[in-house]
Structure formats: structure tokens, C-alpha cells
Amino acid sequence: MLLLGSVVAPARADDLSVSLEEARAAWESGRALLIDIREPNEHATGVAAGALLLPMSQIGRRLAEIPVAPDEPVLLICNTQNRSSRTLRALRERGYGHVRFVNGGMSEWAKRGWPMVAPPR
Fold first, then answer.
1. Which of 20, 78, 88, 106 is catalytic?
2. Which of 56, 57, 65, 107 is deepest in the core (most CB within 10 A)?
3. What is the pLDDT of the chain when averaged over all its residues?
4. DSSP string, 81-110
5. Is position 36 annotated as part of the catalytic site?
6. What is the dihedral of CA 100, 16, 6, 113, to 10 degrees?
7. Domains assigned to the chain
């Protein structure tokens, strides 16, 4: 299994997730792609600026938007981590070993008062 090492350190021994702090640092520094898999009505409450908005319901038909190169770390975020952890497992079954989910999700992001913007139209 590919380890992202210093790019995004694993938050758990199973190498499936990262902490919210690690995810934000990797995404803001350009070391990882943050994909918000919440649905459009949830995006309306605010998104992380620059995150790829790819609703879970659309992933099957938009799979090509997720980088396949193992050196392009991908972080999935939903509202809490339930959907992103399930989506991660499905992507891992398809060979996306460089994808992880973000613990806490956007609900925790918002609780911390971290920057959020209106989604692009």
C-alpha cells in the first residue's frame, strides 16, 4: 500500500484517514487535492475555497476527475466522515491507494471557524 509519508501523515495505523489539521495543511500547501463529496444542498452552507466539489451521488460518472497517479494525494471530505469513509473504501477497491478520508469532516471544519466560501456557480 502506498504511504504518502511526509505529504499527508496517516492519522491511524490503517492508513485510511487523516486528521482535519493534517488535511487542511496538505491542501492549503498544494500537497493534496481536497474533494468535497457532500451534495449540492450541503455545499450551499459553505465549502473550503478551491476544493473540488464532487458529490458522492455523481462520483460514478465523474470518476475521471479523481487523479489516478499515486503521487497525487487525494483527501475526501463530507459532513462528518461517514460518507467519505465509505467512498474511500469503494475507491480503494478500484485501485486508488492514494486516497484518504478526513476525520471530522466539514461539520468540524465549520465548528473551528475555519474559512469557508460560497460554492462556485
1. 78
2. 56
3. 89
4. SHHHHHHHHHHHHTT-TTEEEETTHHHHHH
5. no
6. 60
7. 17-111 (3.40.250.10)
Rg of the chain taking only CA atoms, in angstroms: 13
Mean pLDDT for the stretch of residues 7-34: 80
Read off the pLDDT of residues 65-112 as tens digits, 9 standing for 90 and up: 999 999 999 999 999 999 999 999 999 999 999 999 999 999 999 999
Q: How far apart are CA 78 and CA 104, in angstroms?
A: 9
The predicted-structure confidence for 58-74, as pLDDT tens digits, reads as follows 999 999 999 999 999 99
pLDDT at 54: 97
Name 77's Cβ contacts closer than 8 Å, sequence gap at least 6: 23, 34, 35, 36, 37, 38, 48, 51, 84, 101, 102, 105, 106, 109
Q: What's the CA gap between 16 and 63, in Å, rounded? A: 19
How many other β-carbons are positioned within 10 Å of the β-carbon of residue 28? 14
